[in-house]
Amino acid sequence: MLRRAVILFVILGLAPGVWLRSPPLRPNHAQAVDSRAVPRGPECCSYGPLRLTGAWRLISPNTDFGGWSALLVARPGRLLAFSDRGYWLDMPQPGQGGDTRISATFPDDARYKENLDIESATRDPESGRIWIALEGRNAISRHAPGLQGEAIRQPEEMRRWPINSGAEAMLRLADGRFVAVSEASSEEGGKVHPALLFPGDPTDLGAARHFGFAGPAGYRPVDMAQLPDGRVLVLMRRLRWPIPARFLIKLAIADPAGIAPGQVWRAREIADLNAGPLQTDNFEGLAVEPGRDGAVVVWLISDDNSAVTQQTLLWRMELPAPVR
User: pLDDT tens digit string along 90-146?
Assistant: First the structure.
């Protein structure tokens, strides 16, 4: 037991990846992001049915930049990301023109000061409203299209979810129901994750139904988005040691018709993003939008954890239709 404790202490003390943070900087609120293309060969890259069409490293002098854990396409040609430090980033997609804005999601509101760790976000395309899941509080907030706060609630069904493994993935389905999935594992030897199905807006009163979620073994769900055909694309992550930490990333697909109270909703792997030549990172944000000829554009963004060995990556991929 003592030997294990000593080994753990050494690992935590030496690990440069997740725990060794970049030195604190003087506050800088510059509204700018530089998208630097990641070099890739002309044949790069295919991942299962997906094809990588762009990869960038995002850099900004703004000291609130980084930690992006959720991603949306709120407007054509633009990306909207949310961070685990409570900020949002509204930026043009690489190659598009327009301004960049970085700002606090919950400015000067005491209701939100307990914890600002945003881990997932989802949007109603008709009203433009956005829902945000706060880890640590196990709360969900609703926002107007301009991100003004409208409501917040801590669903009773989420209260026992672990503080740092709350609603890591959340999705408003096209029929108006909401799905929230915890990163924590529970049944079947840790392969099943607690999940909830809300009949409507989760910030309104109303009971949610419990079910389980299972994807590729050893991987945890970190974000999800609904495809035009109704199925759900799920971003899955696995942390692999030793030092420095490596993040293994897979994409899976699941049919929401298979969600049933008390049952396990299973997702099927369609792509291993570590099977290609490009380096992955802690991808936590996933968004989709229509592409050409029925294809779907898939966007991924990584959370750099403010760690010296990590970076903010943005990938653009194309998923042909129909995907099997």
Answer: 999 999 999 999 999 987 655 555 568 899 999 999 999 999 999 888 999 999 999
DSSP label at residue 219: -
Q: Domains, the chain, ranges and CATH?
A: 28-319 (2.120.10)
CA angle 9, 15, 17 (to 5 degrees): 145
Determine if residue 20 is left, alpha or beta; phi over 0 gives left, psi from -120 to 50 gives alpha, anything else beta: beta
CB-side neighbour CA atoms (13 Å) of 42: 0
In the three-class reduction of DSSP (H, G, I as helix; E, B as strand; rest coil), residue 256 is classed as helix
H or E element: which one contains 302? strand 296-302
Contact present, 286 and 224 (Cβ < 8 Å): yes
Query: What residues pair up with 323 in beta bridges, in sequence order?
Result: none
Contact (CB, 8 A) for 169 and 122? no
* Of residues 186 and 290, more confidently modeled: 290
| Tokens coding 258 | 């298979």
pLDDT category at 8 given cuts 50, 70, 90 is very low
Higher local confidence (pLDDT), 79 or 106: 79
Token readout for 16 is 């440069």
CA 153 to each of CA 28, 150, 250, 259: distance values in angstroms, whole numbers, following the listed order: 33, 11, 31, 24
Exposed / middle / buried, residue 277 (Cβ in 10 Å: 0-12, 13-18, 19+): exposed
Q: How crowded is the C-beta side of 161, counted as CA atoms within 13 Å?
A: 29
CA torsion sign for 136, 140, 145, 147 is negative
